[in-house]
Amino acid sequence: MTTKTSHSGASIYVCLALASTTLFARHAAAEVTIVQTPKWELYTDGRVGGFASFADGDGYPNISTDAAGNPVSNPFGGGITSNDANFIDDTPKLQQPKLRGFRIRSGFLSNIFAVGARTQIGDTKLTTYIQFWADIESEARRKYVPMPVDVRQGYLKLEGRWGGLLVGRMGTLFSRGAAEIDFLYGHGYGVGFPTAVDSSGTSAGHVGTGVLGPGFAAGMVYVTPSLAGLQLNAGIFDPVIIVGAWERTEYPRPEAELTFDQKFGDSAKLHVFVNGAYQKVYRGGEPDSTNTEAYGAGYGARVEVGPVHLGVAGHYGQGLGLYYALESSEASYDASPAHRLRKSDGYYGQLQFALPKVDLNAGVGISRVIPLSAETRTINGMPVFIPADGAPDANGQRQSLIKYQLGMSAAVVYHFSESLHFDFDYFRASFGWQLGEKQVVNFFNSGLTATW
User: Which of 181, 215, 242, 290 could form a disulfide with 311 if both were Cys (CB 3.0 to 4.6 A apart)?
Assistant: First the structure.
């Protein structure tokens, strides 16, 4: 039987540190100078906030049984599976349980404190930057559990007429454009999809429902100078394994993003992006010939015309999973001895009306996992038949793979000032499995964020 996989906020950590990188004034950190000397400037940026979040809807679908009580179908690979403590067990055992829970939690970004220093070396600007994240809610509602501080980013950046170079730990490039849309036009001051009720950690916004989280990694990235609005970010990152399946690597992971920016007068702008990643992975303790390839491609655009902001994005790849690239879950590989990597895709659209004091945001996105077909593979020199996803096994039991995760969101954000922001947002998460099981959970979130 396939084990259910949960995706908590603590395990995802998918959001980019856009507060320190975006060019949009309302969302950008102001950067407060701490010390200014003739050679160095020491500065800080960050945010602090919290949200009330209420969840109400369906529990995880039950394993279906036949008339004799034997298991027939087992849903796996997605949905909200880590909230057993919040299931309301007042329904007959053969009916799907209900889920209800309330938390005071972190939002799409955690509490953040960052410090940077910059200086000029001839014609080159040197910047160093370290960023700390800290959640506000305890794991599994246990207030005695220590709250760790995560050093999310730490890098140096060189900039000159030749372009730029980043070295250290930073946000990665694949799916960065889609996450930027979610931050800028959707959940930069909100919650969206918390992914789970009992866990701790940042929420997901639309990640898992149309958006892949880019995540953070050690890397080296070169940024070309802008040529008529065209710019390339190309880097290599610390390789990542797929736990439980492909647990050896030999080479760094290349990632790249090509962007194009164009302004039209004083009130309109366009941002187009394409990005991708590639990682070859191997079996632990086996020859190099036993390998496979995980890869992904993302694309999209943002357009702003006065107060109307629209972003669209999509992605496709192999071994990506639902939440972040090269995810270690049943959504990215099967449970057969071959551990075949699954293909998946996602599509996302976000609309915002940015009024002088109020933002009105609405979005929709879907992530899909493509079932694997039956095939015969050679494993350890022997041909092995691997059934298709959803086919009955020798005991007549069928594994029901997650088919899609659909998210619909709406938010109202009121800006008391450039530093204080109030959010109320709603998120409807819908999940469907290959053999017809379904789950729908509604999230109502509201809170405050202070930025500097």
Answer: 181
CB burial of 333-351 (b: ≥16 within 10 Å; e: otherwise) equals bbbeebbbbbbbbbbbbbb
Cβ-count burial 171-205 (b if 16+ within 10 Å, e if not): bbbbbbbbbbbbbbbbbbbbbbbbbbbbbbbbbbb
Cβ-proximal residues to 216 (8 Å cutoff; 6+ apart), any chain: 13, 17, 152, 153, 169, 170, 171, 172
CATH number of 9-451: 2.40.160.10
CA distance 367 to 208: 6
Going from N- to C-terminal start, the domains of the chain cover 9-451
Compute CA 259 distance to the chain's CA centroid, rounded to the nearest angstrom.
20
Q: To the nearest whole number, what is the mean pLDDT of the chain?
A: 89
* Backbone phi, psi, residue 216, to 5°: -130, 150
Model pLDDT for residues 363-409, shown as the tens digit of each residue: 999 999 999 999 888 777 788 888 888 888 767 788 899 999 999 99
Mean local confidence (pLDDT), 106-123: 96
